[in-house]
């Protein structure tokens, strides 16, 4: 068996495994001999590579000419990201290797520089005990859910909801409707014909899936006014988007039906940080500063400075907004998927976050990933070859989706 990029497929090669699109629809069956029209189909549906019978002579991705100093700088940067990882683990080692290749190639450019408040030596910022109490009493200052989110929640909860029901809710926000149509018509989905109505998009992708996408977009839009001196929101959104897209790719690899739910879970995985950035900016900046100037991750700094972490803050927001329980669990447990009701789905977001940090697409503020739950890797990732496929697909798909979100 060998994995090969679609652009390197040749007629006559034989598939060694079924090929599905990102929505788990079967495109080609195991044992099928590749013809020219098959290659066109795979490209249309955004498939980056397939498994074929026999070995391949596909060579490692060529790198541009680089001097030793440049490579050393890139390696030092990614070593910081994965400093707490057990790189003897074959899957983590493969993630590290592929992330290093893409960083050396400069595939996604440099991360945005973050403005961090570094406390002077000897100065500490008192723990906001009021915040801890507010969290415990579910009385933290949180924004009310936009009306459209409440309406979408009702549609999701209604088993008799139709595509027209979803379309009517979404269409009340022309900007949201326009963005959803841009997404479903992008190379990310690769539909062969243009979709010009939300109801049509719902019919093709699904009621819950479109509703989930709309929820994710609305939540991110609710926090766009965070000042740059706290967090560069363009960088934050790019990291969140990368995590969502990798989550969706991993869900598709695992033949899971809820690919859009996993996309939204990844997109919103750090929503707890947004609450801290917006309502407790001084403490958030202190956490960022500790993470920037020491070996402590922001996740750990939050516990030390705030007495709680961003997933705990997220719990309160997501419950108040009455978002779906499965989505909430994936977000709340993305640093500890083993404790989630469904460790596999939370584990997908966990692994996606690890990959997104390695690729340095944007930034959530973390310089290094705080924790690796190796217990879920075997459930989420089947082989080293599947990791290569994830990297190929994110390289292929990220640009079009990034352009949509950066222009919203």
UniProtKB/TrEMBL annotation:
InterPro entries with a match to the protein in the record: HD/PDEase_dom, HDOD, RNase_Y/CdgJ
GO molecular function: hydrolase activity
Keyword hit for Hydrolase: yes
Key words, A-Z: Hydrolase
Residue ranges constituting the HDOD domain according to the UniProt record: 142-337
Keyword Hydrolase: yes
Alphabetical list of SMART domains matching this protein: HDc
Superkingdom, taxonomy of origin: Bacteria
Name under which the protein is recorded: Phosphohydrolase
Organism: Desulfosarcina ovata subsp. ovata
């Amino acid at each position: 068996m060998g994995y090969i990029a679609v652009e390197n497929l040749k007629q006559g090669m034989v598939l060694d495994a079924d090929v599905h699109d990102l929505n788990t629809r079967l495109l080609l069956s195991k044992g099928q001999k590749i013809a020219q029209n098959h290659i066109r189909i795979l490209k249309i549906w955004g498939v980056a590579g397939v498994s074929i019978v026999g070995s391949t002579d596909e060579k490692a991705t060529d790198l541009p000419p680089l001097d030793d100093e440049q490579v050393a700088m890139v390696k030092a940067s990614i070593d910081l990201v994965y400093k707490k990882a057990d790189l003897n683990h074959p899957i983590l080692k493969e993630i590290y290797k592929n992330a290093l290749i893409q960083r050396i190639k400069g595939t996604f450019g440099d991360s945005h520089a973050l403005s961090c408040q570094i406390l002077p030596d000897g100065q500490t910022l008192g723990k906001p005990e009021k915040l801890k109490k507010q969290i415990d009493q579910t009385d933290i200052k949180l924004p009310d859910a936009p009306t459209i989110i409440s309406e979408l929640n009702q549609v999701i909860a209604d088993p008799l909801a139709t595509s027209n029901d979803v379309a009517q809710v979404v269409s009340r926000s022309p900007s949201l409707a326009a963005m959803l149509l841009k997404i479903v018509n992008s190379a990310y989905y690769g539909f062969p014909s243009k979709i010009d109505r939300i109801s049509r998009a719902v019919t093709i992708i699904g009621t819950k899936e479109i509703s989930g996408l709309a929820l994710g977009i609305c939540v991110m839009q609710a926090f766009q006014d965070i000042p740059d001196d706290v967090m560069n929101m363009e960088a934050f959104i790019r990291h969140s988007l990368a995590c969502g897209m990798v989550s969706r790719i991993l869900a598709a690899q695992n033949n899971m039906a809820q690919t859009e739910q996993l996309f939204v879970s990844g997109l919103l995985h750090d929503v707890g940080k947004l609450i801290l950035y917006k309502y407790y900016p001084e403490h958030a900046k202190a956490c960022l500063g500790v993470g920037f100037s020491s070996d402590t991750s922001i996740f750990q700094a939050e516990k030390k400075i705030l007495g709680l972490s961003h997933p705990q803050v997220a719990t309160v927001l997501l419950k108040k907004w009455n978002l779906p329980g499965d989505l909430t669990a994936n977000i709340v447990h993305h640093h500890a998927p083993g404790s989630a009701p469904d460790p596999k789905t939370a584990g997908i977001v966990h692994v996606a976050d690890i990959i997104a940090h390695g690729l340095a697409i944007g930034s959530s503020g973390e310089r290094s990933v705080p924790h690796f739950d190796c217990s879920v890797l075997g459930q989420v990732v089947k082989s080293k070859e599947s990791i290569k496929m994830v990297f190929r697909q994110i390289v292929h798909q990220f640009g079009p989706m990034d352009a949509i979100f950066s222009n919203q």
